[in-house]
Structures are given as structure tokens and as C-alpha cells.
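W.,

You were right to be curious about this one. When I first looked at the sequence I had no strong expectations either way, so I just let the prediction run and decided to look at it fresh. Below is the sequence, 458 residues in total, followed by the output.
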Amino acid sequence: MSYRVVVIVIGAISIINLSGCSKEWTNHKYDQSQTVPDSVSDAQYLLNNSNIFDNGTSMGEIGAGDLYTTYANWQATYTNTERNCYIWAPDIYQGETGFDWDEAYQQIFTANVALELLASISHGANSSNWNNVEGEALFFRGAAFYDLSQLFCKAYDSLSAGTDLGIPLRLKSDVKATSVRSTVKATYEEILADLTQSASLLSATIPAGPLKTLPSKAAAFGVLARVYLNMENYAKASLYADSCLKIQNYLLDYNTLDSTQQFPLAQFNDEVVFYREMGGGYALINSYEYLLVDSSLYLSYSSDDLRHVIYFKPNSPYYTFYGGEASIDGNLFGGIKTDEMFLIRAECNARAGNIAAAMSDLNTVIASRYRTGTFTPYSATGSADALQKVLTECRKELCFRDLRWSYLRRLNKDPDFAITLTHYLNGNTYTLPPNSDLYIMPIAQDELQISHIQQNTR
């Protein structure tokens, strides 16, 4: 982690005027000698910092193929990074800093500060609160490591994970510690260790409303399901998706939503297990003028499929995406919902030959998305047919949620599902072949100059 990132986070911690959380800490710590965090509540306030923890990564979403933009809009975007992510250029940043890298390591640093603070405090009489705060810190750290692994490491492969380059695993807040890239195997082991421990500590109660930005046991299970899915450990992915659904399995009936509203899906609706947004401030995914939908995706919805009108709005002569629990400032949803867990469990069952179970989960989700009385339940002739149907609906249901990049990286290893992405701009054609090194994002030059870690090959 670079000194630049550390300065940003230390500034936030020193001020501790944390957005969206109680100001009690600043109000009662009036003496300069008392400004060092020293309680479980102080650790909680560090983790309540929405400026740090409410944003996930977003570079992958720009290049995942569901997004389309015009040449004029592409030229007008704010940063080199988003323009180059869209065309899968070898040099993404062109002198800019790596926002997704920096923000994830800010989260890791702050989580480490909170964990070290907790380690210095006795559990005391309120051990359940102490445990829950530790669980939150481990969740945020593990989730940030996972986000980084999806952008800056090769897709997980059990045969090469022990030698493939991973990410620096910063497990202490010591800013003087040398950054060293681990292996992909070690990276995933740490992700699993953090999230598994967090699941054992977190409350099973899912917070309500804006507090869904704090993790619960179901949220930890949800991320574990994602991790194991991308490791192609489908038995454990199914287990953790099921564990999440045992706590929260609610699905919205899209017939009850008002498609004339700008955002038909309420920001903190009952499908949301854990809320966060995509970060970066990139116009291509956070501005409805620029965020146009790939025509093949839009045309894949039938006229009776309510996602057709819930997710998309006309932006003549194109369509733009307005679904996905968008925030009032337009940032796209990047958290965890129950529909994703149903579909993970469905895919895993299809791969295991449990066809009836796979179709049951798939039909449960999709029936709630169709006009009443119009949905014909899916059936499958075998595992391959069931898997194809599930994955087709995954793209339609989970679009613009920072998930497809990971799906592509995993599925491209299977020739039956490998695809080449193509973008056209101003007479030029840009392609992203399956299993290309361009699926591994480079590390920004300013980070390399400070930490001297090894660059990715592109």
C-alpha cells in the first residue's frame, strides 16, 4: 500500500468526522490527549465510515460487455482510466492513479486499524458487541481482498494458483511494512479465512434501511458463496448460498413495482442483504447519459419480462440502465441480494446434476420478474441444458452489479461458454478474447514507484 493511500486514511481517522455515523466520538473527545481511539465504539465508528466502505470496485464493470457507449460520450468521459477500460487498452491509466486499488487498500488499512484497536481492548461484559465489530472489520478486509483479486490477479486455477501472482496481503496497519505480492492461492486463503471468521462473529440479523451498509452473517455467507463460485468449488458455493438464503430468502414481486418511477427498485429493499455502491465516479457507469445498454442484452428480455421496463429506460435512440437499487446520486448497486444467491445455488445444482433443484431455484427467481400469469416455468433435459438456462438468466438478472467480469473470467475457461467481447468506436474495432491477459488489470505506475511490487503482464 502506498504512502499516498495511508495519508488519505490517516486523515479520515484523525478527523473522525465520519459520514453517516454518530458524531458522539468527536463531541466527547474534546481533549487533545484523548484523541486516540480506545474503545469498541471507536472501532465501530471507524467501520461506519461510508466514505471508505460504501464503495466497491468498478473497472471490471466498464469492460464486462453489458455497457455500450457512443464515440462522443466515450470521448467526453472524465478519465483516461474509464476510456481505456472500455476498449481494454494495455495501458489503462496513462498517468492517472488506480482508484479501485487505492480505495480497496484504504478499506483494508482502516479495517486493520479497527482490528488492532479491538485487540488492545478486553471483551468485558459486552463481548457480543466486541465480536460483532471484529466480524465487521474482518468482513470489510476480506471483501476488499476479494475485490482486488478479481481485478489484479489471474482467474483462480487450482493447478497454477500456487505460483500465479496474487496481491499484497496487508494484515497490519504498519505503514512502514514492505509490500510483497503473494500468490493467488495465498490470496484466496486469506480471503476465506477473513470471511469465515467474520461469519462466525457477525449477527444473523440483517440491519434495516441505510444500516444495510453494515455487514451481517448473511452478507459474509453471500461473499463466501461468490468466492467459492470463482474458485469453481461448486459444493461449497452452494452451501454458503444456501446458508445466506436460510437467513434471508425474500424476493420482490416485480408486478408490485411502479415502472414509471425513475428508480422502481427502492435503494434498501427487502432483497438487499448488504448494500454498497460501485466506486470510481466513472461517468460510463454512474451517468445515465453515458451508461447505454448493449443491444444484445436489452433484446434478450421478452415483452412479458418486467425487467424490460424495471431495469431500462429509453434514451433515444438507445436504452439506459435505471435498475439495481441505484442511489440518489446515480451510483450503481454493487452489494449482495437474495436473487444472486438463488442463482448461485441453481448453477451449482445444475453442475452437480440436481436438475430439479436447479430449475426450482431458477423458476422461483424468474417467476417473480414476469407479468402475472405469463411465465412458463423452465425445465431442462439434463445438466448441460440446465446450466445453460441458469447462466443465460444470470446475465439478465445480475447485469450492472459488478458481477459479470468475474463470471467471464471463470466461464471463459470452459470452451462451451467462452466468448469474445467486441466494442466499436469511430470505425475502430476493439476485442477482448477469452482468457486474455487483458482480464488482469495493471497496477498504476505511481503505486509501482512507491512499493516496487511486480507489474502484471498485459
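Here's what jumped out at me. The two ends are 22 Å apart (CA to CA). And, maybe more interesting for your project: The chain has a mean pLDDT of 90.

Coffee later to discuss?

I.
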